């Protein structure tokens, strides 16, 4: 049984990513961190999820700002980056190196990581797609991390769940992402509270 003091401590997460985390063109309460936080609080979790998403960020941008975007006292990071690398056709090998460096830094700070994957757009070609899509499962396996394989699962082929650009989720789309992500995120939160007690 956890001590009552530990049980009462608020779990502090940081949603660290690009426009998909930042809530591009959405109201302040409609983004992924905000909707996740609301759902988890409704379920009785004492949790805060800070939004550290920056639209347009690549994994290199994320690596450059990681240390000051994730404050001391953070229990866990929802790490969602790589979409802009794929859209720009950046080297999957470099994307993986950048993500690996972020994971290593967070682990050194004893911050738990929930890795959120991305899939390459099909127009990049089969070779690029294969090289890019292998990044997240490989990192999750080598670092023993929970993996949510594809951030836009359930949204990507549904125009009614997207903004007019056909790339970003609308508020309803984010709600679908939240519903699909919650079971594994809940398990992740269980490991954080165990580790902290």
Description:
The chain is an alpha/beta fold and about 200 residues long. The protein has a single domain, classed as SGNH hydrolase (Rossmann fold, 3-Layer(aba) Sandwich), CATH 3.40.50.1110. The chain contains 9 helices and 5 strands; from the N terminus they run αβααβαβααβααβα. The protein has helices at about 5-10, 20, 30-40, 60-70, 85, 90-110, 125-135, 135-145, 170-195; strands at about 10-15, 45-55, 75-80, 110-115, 145-150. A 5-stranded parallel beta sheet has the order 2-1-3-4-5, with helices on both faces. Helix 3 (about 30-40) packs across helix 9, helix 4 runs parallel beside helix 6 and helix 6 (about 90-110) runs parallel beside helix 8 (about 135-145). The relative contact order is 0.16. Mean pLDDT is about 95; it is low at about 1-5.
- Uncertain stretches: 1-7
Number of domains: 1
Biggest sheet character: 5 strands, parallel
Q: How many helices?
A: 9
Got a strand count?
5
Per CATH, the architecture is: 3-Layer(aba) Sandwich
| Secondary-structure element order, N to C | HEHHEHEHHEHHEH
Q: Which structural class should the secondary elements be placed in?
A: alpha/beta
Distance between the termini: 9 Å
Annotated CATH topology: Rossmann fold
Could you name the CATH class?
Answer: Alpha Beta
Overall mean confidence score, pLDDT: 93
Overall spatial form: globular
Radius of gyration: 16 Å
């Amino acid at each position: 049984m956890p001590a009552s003091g530990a049980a009462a401590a608020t779990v502090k997460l940081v949603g660290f990513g690009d426009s998909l985390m930042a809530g591009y063109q959405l109201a302040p309460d409609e983004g992924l961190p905000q909707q996740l936080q609301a759902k988890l609080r409704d379920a009785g979790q004492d949790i805060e999820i800070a939004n550290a998403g920056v639209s347009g960020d690549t994994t290199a941008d994320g690596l450059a700002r990681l240390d000051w975007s994730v404050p001391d006292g953070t229990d866990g990071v929802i790490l969602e980056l790589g979409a802009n690398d794929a859209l720009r056709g950046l080297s999957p090998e470099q994307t993986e190196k950048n993500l690996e460096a972020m994971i290593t830094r967070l682990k050194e700070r004893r911050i738990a990581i929930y890795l959120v994957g991305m899939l390459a757009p099909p127009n990049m070609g089969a070779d690029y797609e294969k090289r890019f899509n292998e990044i997240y499962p490989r990192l999750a396996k080598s670092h023993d991390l929970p993996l949510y394989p594809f951030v836009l699962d359930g949204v990507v082929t549904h125009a009614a769940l997207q903004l007019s650009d056909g790339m970003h989720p609308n508020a309803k789309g984010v709600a679908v992402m939240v519903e699909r992500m919650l079971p594994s995120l809940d398990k992740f939160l269980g490991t954080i509270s165990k580790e902290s007690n």
